[in-house]
Amino acid sequence: MVYFIEYSFYPCLKAGEIGEWQMSEKNITNKRTCIGDGIYLNEIYDPKFKTNNIRIKFITAISEENYAANALLPPVLVTSNSEITSKTELSQKFAGLYGTSVGAIFDSMGDYQVLGFSTTPICDRFTIGGEVISEEVVRQILLCALSPDIKDGKFNEDYFRIRKQELMDIISATVNEKRSYGYMKAKGLTFRNEPAAVAAGITAEKAEKVTQEDLMRQYRYLLKSAHIEITVCGGGGIDNAVEMIKDAFSKLERENTEKIVYRRNSPLKSELENINEKMAVSQSKMYMSYKSDYENIYVCKLFSVLLGNSPFSKLFTNVREKLSLCYYCSAAYLDLKGTLMIDSGVEAKDIEAARKAIGEQIAAVAAGDFTDEELENTKLYMCGAYKSNYDSEWDMASWFEAQNTRGTSYTPEQAAGSINAVTREEIIECAESFKPDSIYILTSEEGLQNG
Amino acid sequence: MDKKIIKSEALGEQYSLIKHPSGLDVLVWKMDGFTTTEAAFATKYGSINNCFRVKGSGDFTTVPEGIAHYLEHKLFENEDTDVFDLYAATGASANAYTSFYETAYTFSTSENWEQALEILLDFVQKPYFTKETVEKEQGIIGQEIKMCGDSPERQCFYNLLKALYVEHPVKIDIAGTVESISHITPELLYECYNTFYNLHNMVLSIAGNVDEDKVIEICDRLLKPANDICVETKFPEEPAGVAQKKITAVFPVGLPIFCIGFKSEPCGEMEYERRGVLSSLIMQLLIGSTSPLHKELFEEGLINSQFGFEEFSGTDSFFTCIISGESRDPDEVYKRLCGEIERVKKEGFDEKRFEICKKSKYGGIVRALNNVENCANSMMESYFNGTTVFESAKLLANITAEDCRKALDVLFDMERSAISVVDNK
Q1: Assigned architecture for domain B246-423
Q2: Which of A54, A92, A157 to mutate to test the interface with B (most CBs of B within 10 A)?
């Protein structure tokens, strides 16, 4: 038996309000508490885990002006803090806490930037001799987040310089991995003039211009006004440490907090746009984007997996296996932007044929050319994948974070219920609603001539 | 049926090793509270096993480079159906991979694990290769090879192996080349299959939401008893020294990428396991984020957060410690690293930092037990290495800083090291 309370009031929890549910069968508890203006604490515990994943995330609207400073902030903050001002000593401190490392988070969700920290200490009950480490891990992270290594109004000068150079190097190195480079550029084209496209235009030169003043201004802004999500997910036994988090964040002085609207469908371009970029690559990369305002995201997700996100999908079976046109060819639905992205690795000579074959598969689904067995197998595949989130504290934390972006708090079983309820007619209707928006191709000279 | 419980009191975990009458060893780890089931049906056969024979059967056979990986692809096609279609009806996610020393067929599922296991055991025991299907696969694998050819990191890694190893087949890409795979025939695939896919050369590893009795019942029904054979792989004589000290390649990259490798003698079973623990501790002590050398290189801008290290090895076959990253001056990183190794050989490691690194390593062992897939893979890997999942925790408890210093001579011999660099120019 699964017990569940729908947060009909979410995301409007006010300070001190708590939403809570328990799944007795799985021994999992989940609690969401508003601990300040726009600050939420999510606690998800399952005693089978031997670790606790702790994430502190600041969520803020993407802007070209602040993008590079936001990217620089997490690595600067995790390098040292007001108590331990040496990176090496801070590393030693965390290594001594059973190899607890602290990672900088810099990511995006639709039109928002997500920045912060993540750490996964082992549960105190698994340390040698039952040593309590959770409180010290959290104390150090809180120092990094709220009491950084600042002197005379500036972050540690050496680390600022080194981390900035590192950021510039990372931006320059995006070209190394061709598939992710191409994906970033494709998003730039697909979401042109929208915040989600900003990352594609960031250069090392722009990062170089970030000053100490920019970084400090942005840091203060985030503490005061960013939406803050804190998640503790794992084996639990960490109550005192969680109290320290609550205490520290509830004391923040907050004003003009950002009201987040995660889902902002990207407008369809009036005409299909193409960009071909030349690079010395052996295998070309092609990204085709389609857009739709179809409301039910579970129908869209099921459609995208049926089309191209399983080893028995339309794209895998037909475009890769039968026609041998692509080494990989998969579809992903970006629910926050109402966009379907099809990502393929293709030989330069086959670009045109692959483009045609992919379009034909979408048309085939829209025409109802899929069997009930294909649909049922896809549902089974997706529902199994949803349930597998229970087996990783990282995935479980991400699952509920994604639920927060949708204003829901569905368990994997409930989301599976939504998938199972989708009808054949809805899939057809959904497929018909997706219209081509843009095509980005990264290719060699030969591909440019064929594309 | 022989059954052995492999247990760690300290970590509160255990799994079973069952010797099935068919000849297959079966590893089962029931993990309470977990939803998924992860299975790997694997053979001790990888890209380095290119020259082999069944013991006592006559001459060695030499096969084209990349054939183990090719065989892995082809096994998914049965005579009458595609294996993915069978899995589709179970909800399981199936996959396979070929490494230098093993090939594994895997599935992960939250539903119907018994049916998924039946499919796994059935299709791996049913090869079907024809001239037409073998030729067709050359296009797909050719594309995979080209895709990998676009990765500067992969190029840098394989170049390092070419620099370190003069003769050993570990220097050859797992997928082979477009040219080498053009020589693969159905007959050669059957020969490799019949040699290495013998149940005595394989293991089934299954972890998570699983019932041991049910696993054995399925094995009883589906496994075809195999003759007890012993496979011999012939490796060429590998000189102690390296092929070249430095190798470079040109690629479009942001910053130069480097891999520095230290080659040592291969070893097996418990010595292999111990060396794995030692090498990981040594690299953490030498150049991990707690070390003086890391501080120096980081603060001088010679390394960044892409910096890392790993032990790269196969039991009884090859053993290398690899340090990799991005740098404006990879040669300077190499020079400083060699200088630090020389210093530590004389002065030894700092005891306080040694204890910190030991604790950190122990935390890593605990973390690895949180993940079903990792547990299934660790059982399989340690089985092929002749050890158990919990051995490293026991070894770790008894290793001293002096052990690490002494091991430097074997694991970090400057004469047996090389650097690979990928740059824009």
Answers
A1: 2-Layer Sandwich (3.30)
A2: A92
C-alpha distance from B11 to closest chain A C-alpha (Å)? 7
- Pairing verdict, β A102-109 and A112-119: antiparallel
pTM for this one?
0.92
Helix ranges, B25-66 (H): none
> Can you give the residue ranges of every domain in chain A?
18-250, 273-450
Q: Is domain B2-233 annotated with CATH 3.10.580.10?
A: no
Partner A, chain B 263-322, Cβ-Cβ below 8 Å: 288-292, 294-295, 298-299, 301, 304-306
| 8 Å CB contact between B15 and B29 | yes
Confidence of residue A10 (pLDDT cuts 50, 70, 90): very low
Overall CATH class of domain A18-250: alpha beta
SS3 B262: strand
pLDDT digits (tens, 9 = 90+) for B307-360: 999 999 998 899 999 999 999 999 999 999 999 999 999 999 999 999 999 999
Domain boundary assignment for chain B: 2-233, 246-423
Please tell me the distance from the alpha carbon of residue A190 to that of residue A438, in angstroms, as a whole number.
6
Which contiguous run of DSSP H or E holds residue A284?
strand A284-291
Residues of B within 8 A of A128 (CB-CB) are: 359, 362
Measured between alpha carbons, how far is B259 from A322 in angstroms, rounded to an integer? 39
Among A133, A169, A277, pick the best mutation site for testing chain B contact (most B Cβ within 10 A).
A169
Distances (CA, A) of A183 to A112, A179, A284, A337: 18, 6, 12, 15
Fold of A273-450: Cytochrome Bc1 Complex; Chain A, domain 1 (3.30.830)
Question: What contacts A251, CB < 8 A, 6 or more positions away?
Answer: none
Q: Annotate B185-244 with DSSP letters as a single string.
A: -HHHHHHHHHHH--GGGEEEEEEES--HHHHHHHHHHHPPP-----EEE--PPPPSS-S-
Structural contact between residues B422 and B248, judged by C-beta atoms closer than 8 angstroms? yes
Q: Is the pLDDT of residue A235 over 50?
A: yes
